[in-house]
TrEMBL record:
This is Ornithine cyclodeaminase. GO terms for cellular component: cytoplasm. InterPro entries: NAD(P)-bd_dom_sf (IPR036291), ODC_Mu_crystall (IPR003462), ODC_N (IPR023401). Pfam families: OCD_Mu_crystall.
Length: 338
């Protein structure tokens, strides 16, 4: 057994992700989770004070397969003030393990992978939860995660227009300029109110801890995907006709974001819970359950639907494994001595 670790850098990860069917990989990981074929412990969260606010580190472990076929962790760190320093807001690493010995086998840059798996979850939600065919989309937030959403939305056959909004108009313009697909029009918008009522899907991908999307902003028949921190206001979470998550356990265990707090207070509960009759909102399903066919959610044309993914390490590890396999097949990667 070679006594080396394979390192895969940011550029190589990005190149290989272009060739991988990212949405298919993530969909299969969600299906496996719904069928009980994964191990998904709680994430570890570390936060500390800095001169300009705070920074944080997340460690997300997961294993997939029965018996286990792949296992690893993602470490993703960040500070919302980083862009002002000319540094990426978030960065990190994925470590994949040898499932027999437990040794670290592969280390790869995580930022692009994390952004793409987040966008893939949203696309799966669009395909299964949008009340109407999605022709027009609004992406709020023009960071790497927002850019990944624009890229994957442009690949959806029904999408004709994607609007990109950011408080920094230049960032929105830069993301829009990245798109070369002549079939889809991608436009930066400074005033999101001018288009929000025309969007069939709204992706909120910001770092805001102050809610800015309320029920009054959302046209009936719209899917809202909340992949940021607390973009959705309380009245939207409680007033949506359907509320779906990726992992009930992870969302319910989180006391930092609004949805977790609503669950802890008893105002939001899971379908089938004995207290659901007293709750103001019910989480209808986990996204993986829809894929596996164990739960059905069928929005009507004028329903408002909210998908609130927490972010699951099973998706990161599944996608990282696909990158690792492609790396080996192409002879990429840098061998490092232990």
């Amino acid at each position: 057994m070679p006594d080396e670790i394979c390192y895969i850098d940011t550029r190589t990860v990005a190149t290989l992700l272009e060739e991988i069917a990212v949405v298919d990989v993530v969909e299969e990981a969600l299906r496996s989770h719904a069928l009980g074929r994964t191990v998904l412990p709680a994430e570890a969260y570390l936060r500390w004070t800095t001169d300009d606010g705070w920074a944080r580190s997340l460690t997300l472990p997961a294993a997939l397969g029965m018996p286990t076929g792949t296992a690893g962790i993602k470490v993703i760190n960040g500070n919302v003030a980083n862009p002002g320093r000319g540094v990426a807001r978030a960065s990190g690493l994925v470590l994949l393990f040898d499932v027999l010995t437990g040794q670290v086998r592969t280390v790869m840059a995580a930022a692009n992978l994390s952004a793409m798996r987040t966008a893939a979850v949203s696309i799966i939600g669009v395909r299964r939860l949008a009340p109407r065919p999605v022709e027009q989309a609004l992406v709020i937030g023009a960071g790497p995660i927002g850019a990944a959403h624009v890229r994957l939305l442009c690949q959806e056959p029904t999408v004709r227009t994607v609007w990109v909004h950011d408080l920094d108009g230049d960032r929105a313009a830069a993301v829009a300029a990245l798109t070369s697909d002549v079939r889809v029009r991608v436009d930066p918008v400074r005033d999101r109110a001018s288009v929000i009522g025309d969007a069939d899907v709204i992706v909120a991908a910001t770092t805001s801890v102050n809610a800015h999307l309320g029920l009054r902003h959302i046209r009936p028949g719209t899917l809202v995907v909340n992949v940021g921190l607390d973009d959705c206001a309380q009245d939207l979470l409680l007033g949506a006709d359907h509320l779906v998550v990726d992992s009930w356990a992870l969302v319910a265990d989180d006391d930092k974001r609004l949805l977790g707090q609503l669950i802890r207070s008893g105002r939001v509960t899971a379908a089938g819970d004995s207290t659901s009759a007293r709750a103001e909102q019910v989480v209808r399903a986990e996204l993986g359950q829809l894929i596996a066919g164990s739960v059905m959610v069928s929005p009507r044309q004028d329903d408002r639907v909210v998908l609130n993914p927490f972010g699951m390490a099973v998706n990161d590890i599944a996608l990282a494994t696909a990158v690792e396999q492609s790396t080996a097949a192409k002879g990429f990667g840098l061998p490092l001595p232990r």
